[in-house]
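Objective 1b of the project was to move from sequence-level analysis to a structural picture of ligand recognition. The entry below was assembled by the postdoctoral researcher (A.K.) and checked by the PI before modelling. It contains the amino acid sequence of the target and the SMILES of the bound compound, flavin-adenine dinucleotide.
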Amino acid sequence: MSGKPSVAIIGAGLSGLRLAQRLTPFMQVTVFEKSRGLGGRMSTRRTDGFAFDHGAQYFTARSADFEAFLRPYLENGTVQMWAPRLAQLSSAEAPPRWTAPRYVATPGMTGLAKAMAAELTVHRAVQVDRLVRSGHQWQMLDAEENDLGRFDWVISTAPSLQTARLMPPAFAGHPSLEAAVMQGCYSLMLGFDTPQMLNWDAAWVGQDPLAWIAVNTSKPGRPAQHCIVAQTSNRWADTNLERDQDTVRAELISAVEAVTGLAASTAAYISLHRWRYASVATPSATPFLIDPDNRLAAAGDWCGAGKVEAAFDSASALAEALEITLTG
Ligand SMILES: Cc1cc2nc3c(=O)[nH]c(=O)nc-3n(C[C@H](O)[C@H](O)[C@H](O)COP(=O)(O)OP(=O)(O)OC[C@H]3O[C@@H](n4cnc5c(N)ncnc54)[C@H](O)[C@@H]3O)c2cc1C
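Corresponding predicted holo structure:
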């Protein structure tokens, strides 16, 4: 026994892994992730030789803290700059100019999470279902009532609605969780056996259902097979979330064909992913949630702008507050 308080962190996305890194010096940290893969919404789908970043497309580093965090990963190539040829489709407007660098992880978006998790204890494919008080600790259970362990502190980094469902009624952060509003998104993945001739690598589409199309292959370190990711607007996704998924898929294939001229329906690999909680329409009122009396806390991109950097900021701010709470 090290004498350090124990903490269970729910989620191995950027928020959860950043918290785990920051808390390890003064807590016994265990991360639980319901998926087999790491990275949460910074993830990569690999199949049949194709690879798609079907969640976050790239990220920015506007704060000195995030820049400092990224530096070693930039130095060892885990994170690299992406400077695609940009276009604006379905509109006469010129594409926006990127003045700050855009970064991606390699060899896929999940690469950053894998590097961060290397020194951490992460239990994958374990979905936390509920927390039950056990003396001064919290016992965590899965849906089959299996005991996942007892911890002094529990922190959730799941999207706000999922965190609200996980946290016991005693958690003081419930009003803030309920105030946060997240939005959906669909990602259509198209893998081609032969390169497709396009004069852009990434494009905004100013016409529903589509918002963004990227040639995944144009990012550094990706496999050579030609992979395209098309994403819908959040507004369109939210009004079409419960529709038959085959119909949504067919509509998105037609939309890609109409705006790009690509023969999307002939792609060797076609897959649709529905994100219920992709980005943030209304963030929670505070940069993180902490309830020292109950030893519960929460953080995530929904505490801010709904971006990778917002996830980092929320986790870093919560880690700092916990350090003060625990070490005085
Ligand atoms: C389609 C899409 C496009 C995006 N594009 C961009 C972009 O271009 N630039 C940008 O900066 N950001 C983008 N984002 C947002 C960015 O991905 C997120 O802001 C960031 O990854 C959030 O990190 P997080 O750790 O807070 O949450 P998440 O990555 O969602 O991590 C939460 C983790 O908790 C796990 N979890 C949930 N419930 C449980 C449970 N009960 N038990 C165990 N584990 C659980 C989840 O599986 C997940 O891994 C995009 C997101 C999506 C979906």
